[in-house]
Design a protein that fits this description.
mainly beta, Jelly Rolls, 9-stranded antiparallel β-sheet
């Protein structure tokens, strides 16, 4: 199942500054390699559609393959939306996300008791905005959802942060299994742009605390993913396209430090031991 659920506009989100000396990396498509180094490459995810039916989405997804039995507790990537165009009620999105669901609810292959932690770069009138989401699906299709927990620190409001097409941003999501504290961060050029911290076990106005059957834990972790897609609203009929580049993917598992997982350098196809590809429109191209 590809993770293209339409996200409620009022859902809150969060972020915190990570240890940049350990985790922040260079931007998508940076060049300057020596003759001994592999040429720089990036993962390009793209999607397009015309006259889209109402409430539909299309685009590729890269699902990360972690070590056996491991849960991704820190997920970071460089991301740049390099081109996008939409008409009507279409939206284009480039996303990094984590999905959680109790094991007992997975047999139906739906959204029962699913929780998402996501960062997206989204088309908006006049440009792009970056938003962060922490929400739980309240029905089996995730047509309805609710934010969960309380934002306790940071400057990334629910209205989002303005970002620019063609600019590379470092997006990261981290969570602590023992405390259910989630941190989201967005940076560019090595400097934090938007940050926030969320305590999933603390309620806030209109946002309940995390309670069973919903769960964010090593056991309920399902997957980490990168995606770019176009999505129609209730009216449909519009056209949309998006092209996004991802690079320098860092991953920490089971509460451990982040390490470089993939920078796509020297590759022409995705490593099947690292990525599962869903949908069409994913490829590795030369950066720079």
């Amino acid at each position: 199942m590809m993770d293209m659920t339409r996200k409620p506009g009022a859902v809150a989100m969060a972020v915190v500054v990570l240890a940049w000396a350990a985790a922040t990396v260079s931007g998508c498509g940076d060049s300057g390699t020596s003759p001994q180094e592999a040429p720089n490459h990036v993962a390009e995810l793209s999607a397009s559609t015309t006259a889209a039916p109402p409430n539909t989405a299309t685009g590729p997804e890269l699902t990360l393959v972690p070590p056996a039995g491991a849960a991704v507790t820190l997920f970071q990537t460089d991301v740049a939306v390099v081109a996008t165009a939409v008409t009507g009620d279409m939206e284009g999105r480039a996303e990094i996300g984590l999905r959680f669901q109790p094991v007992a609810d997975r047999a139906a292959d739906d959204y029962t008791d699913v929780i998402y932690l996501r960062i997206e770069l989204l088309t908006a009138p006049g440009g792009l905005i970056a938003r962060r989401f922490f929400y739980e699906c309240t029905d089996s299709t995730c047509a309805t959802a609710s934010s969960v927990g309380a934002m306790t620190a940071g400057n990334w409001s629910s209205s989002g942060a303005i970002v620019t097409e063609g600019t590379t941003y470092t997006a990261s999501i981290a969570w602590v299994p023992g405390t259910k504290i989630v941190t989201f961060s967005l940076a560019t050029g090595g400097s934090p742009l938007a940050t926030a911290t969320v305590d999933l076990q603390q309620a806030s106005s209109g946002s309940p605390a995390l309670t069973a059957p919903f769960d964010v834990s090593l056991e309920s972790f399902v997957r980490a993913f990168l995606t770019a897609f176009v999505q129609s609203g209730a009216a449909g009929g519009g056209d949309g396209s998006i092209k996004a580049h991802f690079d320098n993917v860092y991953v920490g598992t089971n509460g451990g430090n982040a390490v470089l997982f993939d920078n796509f350098d020297g590759a022409t196809v995705f490593d099947s031991s690292k990525w599962i590809i869903s949908g069409a429109g994913a490829r590795i191209i030369a950066g720079g």
